[in-house]
Predict the 3D structure of the following.
Amino acid sequence: MSHTLGIRQAQKQKTRQALLDAALGLLEEQSLSSLGLREVTRAVGVAPTAFYRHFRSIADLGVALVEEALGSLHPMIRTTVSTADSSEERIARAIELIAGHVDGYPAHVRFIARERHGGVQPVRDAIRDQLARFAEEVKGELAKDPESEGWSDDDLLMLAHLYVDQMLITASLFLEALEGTEADRERVAQVATRQMKLISIGRHHWPA
Amino acid sequence: MSHTLGIRQAQKQKTRQALLDAALGLLEEQSLSSLGLREVTRAVGVAPTAFYRHFRSIADLGVALVEEALGSLHPMIRTTVSTADSSEERIARAIELIAGHVDGYPAHVRFIARERHGGVQPVRDAIRDQLARFAEEVKGELAKDPESEGWSDDDLLMLAHLYVDQMLITASLFLEALEGTEADRERVAQVATRQMKLISIGRHHWPA
DNA sequence: TCATCTAGTTAACAACTGTTCTCTGGATTT
DNA sequence: AAATCCAGAGAACAGTTGTTAACTAGATGA
């Protein structure tokens, strides 16, 4: 199935990725709606007009960045939520996952947090869609849990959204703590753990 | 105590407010980091250089907007959280408050949601500080509740942050639903109500 | 009344923006 | 080997940006 790319398409994809990387870097200190096309091409070392060979506009590049940041995350979510150990362990594992992801891809996380409510509508829409997919997947995993007996689909989705939003808040807090001390990060982890725990307790006593 | 302003200072404040209003309007379709000083003065009908009589920079104006958007909200939060009726009623009242505020000041709400993780650090800091104050105040009100017996300060603050974040998420959802039908808004209200309820149940069964 | 103060104006600056059109040289296809 | 394709370069465009300096006219205070 895998077709070895010609040296032409390979070079094109390389440039495209360089544009994405440069944009992501520049977006650490501004938002997408103020990012200039020339700014990005300058950072890559390529002519401004070359940009149009890859993206129609900056908004278009932003949508591609959403795919890059969230697209590959779906399997990870699935497996993390579905590990059927104790609730405590599941929470600890989820928070570890978030902390690790923030550590490994801080710029991606910042981009999502920033542009989720940012000034570029197509990007906001793309993020909303991806998060809705996450919620649907979490709901699917929750449904398998015996504790979800008697729960309506609506209630399961409401809980799934609560979890997803909570994950995003936690990721954002880890991001802020990245420039802090190890103790700061530990504090974030502990608060997030207790919040998740409280939600799980609410779930357990929910009048299904 | 109130000192009648001279006609000079009065006119100055009027222009300053016009700048803030114009900026808020322009920010409905972009983020602060892309807002131009000339863009704002043009919208007001004033020379670009007049801007400097009121703000050092756009970031400075942004911080003033944070104060305008959140500063006057503290008393409302206090009284809403502290009404000592049943938990159900308290939740309904809180969500009504949020829906009403989003209806009355959509641009302010959008601004806060957008710039909380936006590209302008001083503004992010100002928002974070105000939200931390909210959390502290909510914590203070929660502490008065007999149900909080045995709770540590840390746990109370963790719960307060959970409530504050949940309020922001709800406000943002109401904002999206503003352009939708009445049924959309009703659905947001119902989901938010159940989420708050679940958190309250978790609180009730928390191992203090 | 007269001197001072100051919110807002005007003009000019170098630097930057997105977009268009034309061109080129190396990869691809025939 | 020849014809085609196409990612990227180069130059030019009108329009925009933040910031400076010197100004004016009306309010303020002595």
The longest helix of chain A spans residues 153-177. The mean pLDDT of chain A is 95.
